[in-house]
Here is the input.
Amino acid sequence: MEHRPSFWTRFKKTHSSIQYIEGGVVSINLQNVSVKYPSNSILSDFSCYFEAPALWAIAGPNGAGKSTLLRALLGLQKCNSGKITFQGLCPCDVAYLAQQNQLDRRFPLTVGDTIAMGLFREVGLFRKYTKGQREKMQRALERVGLSNFAKVPLQALSGGQFQRVLFARLILQDAPVIFLDEPFAGVDGRTIEDLMGLLQSWVKEGRLVLAVLHDLDLVQDYFHKTLLLARHFYRWGNTIDVLTKENMRAAMAASRQWEGEIERI
Amino acid sequence: MIDFLISPFMDYVFLRRALMACIALSLGCGPVGVLLVLRRMSLMGDALAHAILPGAAIGFLVGGLSLPAMGCGGFFVGFLVAILAGAISRFTILNEDASFAGFYLISLALGVLIVSTQGSQVDLMHILFGTVLAVDKISLIMVTSITTLTLVVLALIYRPLLIECFDPGFLRVIGGRGGIYHFVFLILVTLNLVAAFQALGTLMALGMMMLPAVSARLWARHVWSLFLLSIFFSILSGYFGLLFSYHLEWPSGPAIILIAGLIYGVSLIVAPFGAFKQQQGSA
Here is the structure.
């Protein structure tokens, strides 16, 4: 997977397969979406429907296309066919947390600078942060348990604290739809618990949250809805109905198949 | 002491001009270099610096050894290479750094070929290694204009540019057009390399940008302090480089870069984030 966007991809905004419809219940509808890479196809004829408020886990083996699916939803990945419809949303209503290892944790910014990015759309290029916005930032820091960290440089943070900072930025973005890619990778148990609390409060606020997760125990404990994805094999719905032994075996079998394909190449 | 430190600059106009040029360069190159390091585009800067050569050579054919002519040529060819290399990495399996490396070797060879067949050995040396002591009024105006433009543009796009440095995906998702800032930044890098090219030549133009920036990175932990420190380091190297080149009759370009290198070496040893204090720094 590319680490940083190359020169040309920085210019592209969204792909034509994505459609935004105003009004109505906030929801995302994927119809017959296919994503193919030159050497293999990741998603084919994938259809799924997410409606707010809900907390969805996207689970599946490595290489199952979970991140590809998120990237397709964000318009960062081109779909070969199919249609993605965002209802009641505009392109900027989506917040996204990339995998943590994509960011340089030694970048010379303070925690305050980093979370302030979440307000970029409000403040624009030059305007100063108003008193209200500063209070908002402070409240966001309090919600993630980092009240006194505004002046602390990023490089002094632990992995868990860094992830809390990124969550504070998400709070400030205040988006009705939130995508999280492996939000709990390399994060300790207490932080996971705190951040899970945050996810649940987002759902209570009426948001739609989609999280790619590895840890199936976590999915079973906290997520009511699950999309189990193993490339062409997928099931979605209530977690208890989806994470059955039978489905898990099918997913494993599918993953063995594509890993076998890789070995043959 | 004053004789040693100040009088050379009082006695000779060309040294004063050179010092002015160095200070102006530092003000522009300092911040641009820091951003280049933060964006992990050091190698790209290297490639751009070399890509200026054939353009400068064409400018040399047209206008002789004049900075405006060579500068314009250098800017356009340098920028063209940046675009082409970006396109190549998009449409082939090659990474951006690999396609840049390919391009800059070609442009270096092409530039050397043009200058050596059409000019003298001395001309070639001037273009490759610079002649900061030969900075004239027009060149000085050009360098200071580029610096002014750089600082104004950086001030305008500072916030999104920094967001794009730290987290390019974030800016794209919130609907900011990261590409525009990247594009503007590339123009700024090329412009500043063109400005530095007269003083240090194509081979070392990047030195004025990179060395102070990486040294500053070892000392400071905020972007604004990185900018200031990088500017300070590069003014120091300009001043002492010229001083040594006057007293010891060293060539000026290498002297400036070596002072910058010395600052880097010292920073590596004593700076808070240097080689020996890493543990304390990250604690």
Notes: Strands of chain A lie at 18-21, 27-36, 41-51, 54-59, 81-87, 94-97, 177-181, 208-212, 225-230, 233-238. The CA atoms of residues 9 and 207 of chain A lie 29 Å apart.
